[in-house]
């Protein structure tokens, strides 16, 4: 099984935003906290990896379990199909997916995700021209994908520069730490702080995360 897993290991291609340097210069000029934070992390920046279907499938697999557990389940799940595509997932047996460690609900979510991709209910080829909210609306129609997951997808896969995920605990905690001396922060407080970050709120959010956890995360 280990040999099979190695042979079918997912090929990961990382890419980074072309706008990062411009965004950092803008944020450092407009915001005193960003001016202090940005130099602390050198050339590190947001990274995207995988294709759209794989990225969303991994987000479903990882829901409500630890990062380590999610990776373990994914490793077992990804060797079931010849290639991790919507059509291949739809051909899998439920019992095999459950044996890989997926709950019955996550199996349902993954099948619904594959159905949305294979049926053309989501417009992957048009996303580059679509507004953020239009893409979010398509994604949250898929079972198991909420607004937060859709916003992470916009940031990490499509690399949209101006996403503000107000439901993200790390963002709120980062704003609390860096702007309010650790005091509780409301969504309206966060919006007010983030007004100075526009049109690079994705980049500023990334630095809020880094202020709490220096090691970057890629989805």
TrEMBL record:
What is the uppermost EC class here? hydrolase
Instruction: Outline the extent of the HhH-GPD domain.
Output: 61-213
State the superkingdom: Bacteria
Q: Does the entry feature the keyword Plastid, yes or no?
A: no
Q: Which UniProt keywords apply?
A: DNA damage, DNA repair, Glycosidase, Hydrolase
Q: Which GO terms describe its molecular function?
A: alkylbase DNA N-glycosylase activity
Membrane-spanning intervals of the chain: none
The chemistry this enzyme catalyses reads: Hydrolysis of alkylated DNA, releasing 3-methyladenine, 3-methylguanine, 7-methylguanine and 7-methyladenine
Q: What is its EC number?
A: 3.2.2.21
Coiled coil start-end: none
PANTHER family in UniProt:
DNA-3-METHYLADENINE GLYCOSYLASE
Under what name is this protein listed?
A: DNA-3-methyladenine glycosylase II
Q: Which organism is it from?
A: Ottowia thiooxydans
């Amino acid at each position: 099984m280990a040999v099979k897993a190695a042979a079918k290991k997912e090929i990961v291609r990382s890419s980074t935003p072309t706008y990062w340097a411009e965004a950092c210069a803008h944020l450092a000029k407009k915001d005193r906290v960003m001016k202090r934070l940005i130099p602390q992390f050198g050339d590190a920046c947001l990274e995207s990896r995988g294709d759209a279907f794989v990225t969303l499938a991994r987000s479903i697999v990882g829901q409500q379990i630890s990062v380590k557990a999610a990776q373990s389940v994914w490793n077992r799940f990804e060797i079931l199909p010849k290639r991790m595509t919507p059509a291949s997932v739809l051909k899998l047996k439920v019992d095999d997916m459950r044996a890989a460690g997926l709950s019955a609900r996550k199996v349902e979510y993954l099948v619904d995700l594959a159905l949305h991709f294979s049926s053309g209910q989501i417009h992957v080829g048009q996303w580059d021209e679509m507004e953020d909210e239009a893409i979010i609306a398509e994604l949250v129609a898929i079972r198991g994908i909420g607004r937060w997951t859709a916003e992470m997808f916009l940031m990490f896969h499509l690399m949209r520069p101006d996403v503000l995920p107000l439901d993200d605990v790390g963002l709120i905690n980062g704003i609390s730490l860096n702007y309010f001396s650790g005091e509780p922060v409301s969504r309206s407080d966060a919006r007010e702080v983030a007004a100075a970050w526009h049109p690079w709120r994705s980049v500023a959010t990334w630095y809020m995360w880094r202020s709490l956890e220096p090691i970057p995360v890629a989805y």
